[in-house]
């Protein structure tokens, strides 16, 4: 892979990820590290997932941001819920999961 192609891919992935994060609060996202983060990241009542998160954004701003999206490439959210405790102590699934949280 050439340096130019890598630069194009990473630029597109960053632009697309930031645009989807800002306009749609696409889930999963690396900004969501705990369940509290998840609750604040969710769209407000009445806004369906995949729709514009902020209904008061001017249409021209939305259009300008969407015009920057190139293809479908986004960064994979590797830090999604990384700080969330996924299993409560005492509700072990197996011995390994119990030892992780104690």
Describe the structure.
By secondary structure, the protein is an all-alpha fold. It has helices at 3-24, 35-41, 59-67, 95-100.
Number of helices: 4
Oligomer: single chain
Q: Give the N-terminus to C-terminus distance in angstroms.
A: 45 Å
Q: What percent strand?
A: under 5%
Tell me how many strands there are.
0
Largest sheet: none
Order of helices and strands: HHHH
The helicity comes to 40-55%
Structural class estimated from helices and strands: mainly alpha
**Shape, per Cα inertia axes:** flat
Topology:
Elements: H1 3-24, H2 35-41, H3 59-67, H4 95-100
Summarize the entry for a quick read.
With 102 residues, this protein is mainly α. The chain is 43% helix and 0% strand.
Labels describing this entry:
single chain; 102 residues; mainly alpha; 4 helices; flat
């Amino acid at each position: 892979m050439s340096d130019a192609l890598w630069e194009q891919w990473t630029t597109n992935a960053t632009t697309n990820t930031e645009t989807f994060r800002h306009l749609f609060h696409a889930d999963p996202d690396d900004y969501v590290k705990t369940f509290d983060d998840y609750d604040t990241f969710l769209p407000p009542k009445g806004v369906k997932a995949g729709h514009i998160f902020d209904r008061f954004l001017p249409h021209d701003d939305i259009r300008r941001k969407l015009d920057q999206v190139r293809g479908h490439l986004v960064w994979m959210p590797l830090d999604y819920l990384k700080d969330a405790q996924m299993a409560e102590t005492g509700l072990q699934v197996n011995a390994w999961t119990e030892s992780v949280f104690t």
